[in-house]
UniProtKB/TrEMBL annotation:
Residue ranges occupied by any SnoaL-like domain in the UniProt entry: 6-123
Protein's name in the database: Nuclear transport factor 2 family protein
Family annotation (InterPro entries): NTF2-like_dom_sf, SnoaL-like
Domain of life: Bacteria
Amino acid sequence: MALTPDDRTAITDLISLHGQLTDDGELDRMHEVFTEDVVYDVSDVGFGELHGLAAFRDAAERLGDGNPVGHHVTNVVLSEVDDDEVHVRSKAIAVHADGSAGSAVYRDVVKRGPHGWRITRRTILARRKPLGR
C-alpha cells in the first residue's frame, strides 16, 4: 500500500514541527514528534547517542545558549518501507546566535503508532564539505 497524500503531509509536518518546538523551547512537547524511546544520534557532531525523550531534553537544556536559535528543514524526501514505517531524509540548516550557520542531513525512521506518525530514530550528519566529499 502506498503512502496516502495525508500520510505524506503528516510526516512532512512532523519533520518541520521539531524545529518549531525546539526554537520555541517547548521541549515538553517533543512527544508530538518523537516516540518516548527515540534514539537521537548526534555522534557525528560529538554528542553520542541519546536514548529517550528525557535524555534529549537533558542534552538540550545542558547545551543552553549553545543551541541554534533557528532550525530550518528543507528538501524532505520520504521512502516507504512498509505501511507503518517510512525513512525520511531531509536537509537541516542551523543558525546560531552569533550569526554563523551550519548544514546537516537528518536521517529519520518514522513509524505509525497509536498517536500517529512519530520519529523513532534520528541520525544527524554534519555537512562539512561540498559535493558530498
